Amino acid sequence: MMKRIFSGLFLLTTFYLLLSTYSRADFDRSYQDYLSQYNQYRRALSNYQTARNRYLTYQTLTSLSEALDNTKVFLETRDQTMILYLKLLLEKNPDENYRKLLNEDLTFYQNHLNTISSVGNLPDVVSVSDKAKEHFSQTETLSRQTIINIVLNKLKNINASQNKIELGFEEKINFLKNQGKNVTTLERWTLSFKGKQQLVNQKIEEIQVLSDKLQPKSSDQLSKDFSKVQTVIYDANQYLKEGTSFLVEINQELKYGNY
């Protein structure tokens, strides 16, 4: 589960690298904090596995005590990692609906973390651990939908900015046309841009539909469904880049063309 959470967060950083309007400094700092905590979780997991195997082998009171202590540390670091992960997603200011759901999820792991220290035997530790494991699929789905939502909002903002720029260019082109200037090339590039913009709009709608369909299910199926969304996001970003190239051409022609 934690590996899939880590993978999802890596995708978030990748998408931000693609969307050039995003300032990564604050995110990188928080992301490094998360990685540090994730490494602590991995060490705790290794220690837990070693102590568990020793207890299963020797069945002594000492090995039992070590297994209990290491299991509790493992569960605590797991919850702490999830808490930091959810806070990291909240920093990116997703839509209010996702903020509400993330805060509810955050409360679950904070409350769960608070119960671990009082557990005094292995059966109760297993019971406490199972409660978190049962909740993981919900967190996994929510985190992926949140990542999609954050990136989708960036795509929409860039798309809107491009549209605003194009409308300004179109006013200038129409003015030149009314002046009797030959604006055939400018109109062709404008039409090409609008074609790319239509494709971006289609991809944005497709991303939203696919995101809404994500549900807590088997991790393999959820990963497949999320991969489909990832592909559409890359397609949308590519169309945005191509649209930008047409806007650059229009701008250059308006500046240096014979008008």
Short structural summary:
It is built from 7 helices and no strands. It has 259 residues and is an all-alpha fold.
Folded structure, characterized:
- The protein has 259 residues and is mainly α.
- 88% of the residues lie in helices and 0% in strands.
- It is elongated.
- Mean pLDDT is 89; it is low at 5-10 and 16-22.
What portion of residues belong to β-strands? Answer: under 5%
Query: How does the overall form come out from the CA principal axes?
Result: elongated
Considering DSSP H and I runs of 4 or more, what fraction of the residues is helical?
over 70%
| Structure summary, number of beta strands | 0
Rg measurement, Å: 25 Å
Overall pLDDT level = 89
Q: Please mark out the parts with pLDDT under 50 across 5 or more consecutive residues, or reply none.
A: 5-10, 16-22
- How many domains make up the 3D coordinates? 2
> What count of helical segments does DSSP give?
7
The SSE string, one letter per element, is HHHHHHH
Structural class: mainly alpha
How far apart are the termini? 61 Å
